[in-house]
């Protein structure tokens, strides 16, 4: 279990507990955090779980985006940035306690 802070495009931050092994997209959905849709349920088919990993965390995430994730990020509605990830592909790990992700203005 670790804390994840979701920062909305307007700067509003919500911090919730996310179980180890659970992905960051579901962490938002299970806690009614708006701004992450997760339309495909984590199947790498929608990009509505797009987020920007906080700069302070970008280098600490041990698993980089896979080729499929990387390609799908290109279809996200909001601009792609160097820290863009699909939150369904970030799986909580004890080392990620305190993770901060920023949500784009839109997922559609
Ligand atoms: S929930 Fe669809 S790609 Fe992440």
Strand neighbour order, sheet with most strands: 2-1-5-3-4
H/E order of the elements?
EEHEHHEE
CATH topology type:
Ubiquitin-like (UB roll)
The 3D shape can be described as globular
Task: Give the second-level CATH assignment, the architecture.
Answer: Roll
Output mean pLDDT.
Answer: 96
- Residue ranges: pLDDT <50 for 5 or more in a row? none
Rg, rounded, reads 12 Å
Provide a count of the helices. Answer: 3
The level 1 CATH classification is Alpha Beta
Helicity range of the residues?
A: 10-25%
Verbal overview:
The structure is a single chain. The chain is of the alpha+beta class. The protein has one domain: Ubiquitin-like (UB roll), CATH 3.10.20. It is 17% helix and 21% strand. It has 3 helices and 5 strands; from the N terminus they run ββαβααββ. It has a 5-stranded mixed sheet with strand order 2-1-5-3-4. β1 and β2 form a beta hairpin. The longest helix has 7 residues, at 24-30. It is globular and about 30 Å long. The mean pLDDT is 96.
Label this structure with key terms.
108 residues; alpha+beta; 3 helices; 17% helix; 21% strand; globular; binds FE2/S2 (inorganic) cluster
Please give the structural blueprint.
Layout: E1 2-7, E2 13-18, H1 24-30, E3 50-53, H2 55-58, H3 67-73, E4 84-86, E5 99-102
Parallel strand pairs: 1-5
Antiparallel strand pairs: 1-2, 3-4, 3-5
The structure holds FE2/S2 (inorganic) cluster.
Residues 25, 38-40, 42-49, 86, 88 line the site of FE2/S2 (inorganic) cluster.
